[in-house]
């Protein structure tokens, strides 16, 4: 982890571990929406996986997921997918967590049995960030 980034997190009062979890969840939710629609099968994969996180936030996980899903849809509609991925990966500092982000993204993208070109492109970009 970059020392300046660590200091920024401490200055902000943000727990680095929680920030990484939120960024992982953000990326998983992006891959629910990246193909242009929110599929219940993909969303359920994310929700099931998210229950394994030790969530430590004032915002409930359900509220966080609902809010972030809207933000992911906006990122897709405004063609900000790569910027969204870059921004979230900036906060995932542990290599195993970065690899987990890619694993979860693939699982979500393939959950509905339709791995389209937008999902493929986003996965390929995410791979460059890991």
Can you describe this structure?
With 130 residues, the chain is mainly α. The protein has one domain (18-129). The chain is 73% helix and 0% strand. The chain has 7 helices and no strands. The longest helix is centred in the N-terminal third of the chain and has 18 residues, at 16-33. The protein is globular, with a radius of gyration of 14 Å. It starts with a helix and ends with a helix. It comes from Pseudoalteromonas caenipelagi. This is Co-chaperone DjlA N-terminal domain-containing protein.
Topology:
Elements: H1 3-12, H2 16-33, H3 40-50, H4 61-77, H5 81-90, H6 95-110, H7 117-129
Helix pairs in contact: 2-3, 2-4, 2-5, 2-6, 3-6, 5-7, 6-7
Can you give me a brief rundown of this structure?
The chain has 130 residues and is an all-alpha fold.
Structural key phrases:
130 residues, mainly alpha, globular, TerB-like, Co-chaperone DjlA N-terminal domain-containing protein
Topology order in helix (H) and strand (E) letters:
HHHHHHH
Helix and strand content put the structural class at mainly alpha
Helix share, percent = over 70%
Integer count of domains: 1
Shape: globular
Distance between the termini: 14 Å
- Which sheet architecture does the biggest sheet show? none
Number of H- or I-type helical stretches: 7
Average residue pLDDT: 90
Task: Outline the low-pLDDT stretches.
Answer: none
Q: Total strand count, please?
A: 0
Which range does the strand content fall in? Answer: under 5%
Rg measurement, Å: 14 Å
